[in-house]
Amino acid sequence: MTAWYFSDNARDWEAPATDVGALEFHRSLPGYAPTPLTDLPGLADELGVGRVLVKDESARLGLPAFKVLGASWACRQVLDRRPGVRLVTATDGNHGRAVARTAARLGAGATVFVPAVMLPETAARIAAEGAEVVRVEGDYDHAVRVAAAYADEPGRALVQDTAWDDYTEVPAWIVEGYQTLLREVDDELDSTGASADLVAVPVGVGSLAEAVVRHYRQPDGPRPQVLSVEPDTAACLLESLAAGRPEVVPTGATVMAGLNCGTVSEAAWPVLRHGLDAAISVDDEAALRAVDDLGLLGVSSGPCGAATLAGVRAALTHPERRAALGLRPDAVLVLLSTEGRPG
Q1: 96 exposed, middle or buried (CB, 10 Å; 0-12, 13-18, 19+)?
Q2: Distance of alpha carbon 2 from alpha carbon 26, whole angstroms
Q3: Contact 101, 77 (CB under 8 A)
Q4: How many angstroms separate the CA atoms of 14 and 221, rounded?
C-alpha cells in the first residue's frame, strides 16, 4: 500500500476563480462566529518549524464539525430552487447531522442513510436533529448509492458531498460552502502579517481538500503547499494519485470514521491530481495519539481532525519526505482540525 505521494509542480497549477456568497450567507446565520486558529508553539518546537496553528472546528454553528458550512450552503441552494422537497443524504457522521440540522432550520424534512458500521450514538445524534435515519447493510459508498436511488423520486432531493457522472451541482455548492473556513484562516493570518507555508487537510471523499486546493491555487492569492491525510485503511486519494487515475479501495474499520471512504469524488479528483502537493496515510494509533496531544494543549479534536497532526508528524519526521516539502525553519503550518472530540 502506498504511504506517501509528492508532486513538485502542484503550486504551478491555477484553479478557476471563485467568488461566491457563502461567507455572507454564513454570517447571516444565528450563532455564526469565526472558529479559533490556535497557535501551538510546543508543536512548532517538536516539528522544527516556526509556527503550528490549528483551525479548531469543534464548535461550528452549534455543531461539533466543519461540515455544516457546506451542508447549509448547499441545502439553501437546493431549497431555493425546489421549495418543499425532502432532503436526502448518506453519511458516516457529521455531514448527515449537518444536513438534518439545516433541514430543520429551513423547515424541510430529511432522510439520512447510514452504513451498518455506524455507532448507535452517532446515528442517535442525527435522529435527534429531527431526521429519519435509515441504516443500510454495507459501507459508506453503498449507503451513498442507496440514498441516491431513494432521492430519485418526486419530492426528494439529494444533498451529497461527493460527485459522480451527472451529479455535480450540489457537491460544487458544498465545496463553495467550505470556502468560509479558508477565508477565516487567511483573514486571521493577514491580521498578523503572516501567511501559511503548508496547510494539512484530512480526506474522506476529498471535497474539503478540493476546496483547500481551489482556494490556494487562485492566480492572485497565497500559494502554500497542501498536504492531504487519510487513514491507511481507506486511502483512496493516495492510491489514486500514485496510480495516476481514480482507484476504488476496500475500506476497513478505523477510528477515523468520517474519513472511511473508498472512492474519491469525481469533482475533486482532477483538482487534487493537478493542485495537491503531497498526500500521506496514517494509522489509528497515530491519530489517537494526536487526539490526546491536542487535548492536552487545549484543542478538542476527534480522530478525523487530529489526523492532520498525525500526518504532519509522519511527513516531517521522515528525512526524505521533509526534504521533498522543503519547509524552512520559520515555516508556518496550518492544520485543519475538522471535528471536536466526541463527548
Answers
A1: buried
A2: 38
A3: no
A4: 10
C-alpha to C-alpha distance for 136 and 115, rounded to whole angstroms = 5
Range 281-295 average pLDDT? 98
In the three-class reduction of DSSP (H, G, I as helix; E, B as strand; rest coil), residue 339 is classed as strand
Q: In what order do the strands lie in the sheet with 51-56?
A: 4-6, 278-282, 225-231, 198-202, 332-337, 51-56, 37-39
Tell me the pLDDT tens digit for each residue of 7-51: 999 999 999 877 678 999 999 999 999 999 999 999 999 999 999
pLDDT digits (tens, 9 = 90+) for 201-250: 999 999 999 999 999 999 888 899 999 999 999 999 999 999 999 999 99
What pTM does this model have?
0.92
What pLDDT was estimated at residue 220? 85
Nine cell digits for residue 31: 450563532
Closest CA to 203 of 245, 265, 145, 148: 265
**Residue reference for cell 471535528:** 339
Burial 278-308 (b: 16+ CB within 10 A, else e): bbbbbbbebbebbbebbeebebbbbbbbbbb
pLDDT of residue 312: 98
Distance CA 270, CA 169 (A): 16
The C-alpha cell that represents 77 in the structure block = 441552494
Mean pLDDT in residue range 146-161: 96
| Per-residue confidence band for 343, with pLDDT thresholds at 50, 70 and 90 | low
Contact 280, 311 (CB under 8 A): yes
Cell of 267: 469533482
Whether 1 has a pLDDT exceeding 90, the answer reads: no
Lookup: cell for 23: 461567507
**Residues annotated as part of the active site:** 67, 92
Would you call 28 helix, strand, or coil by DSSP?
coil
How is residue 161 annotated by DSSP?
S
**Residue 294: its H or E element:** helix 284-296
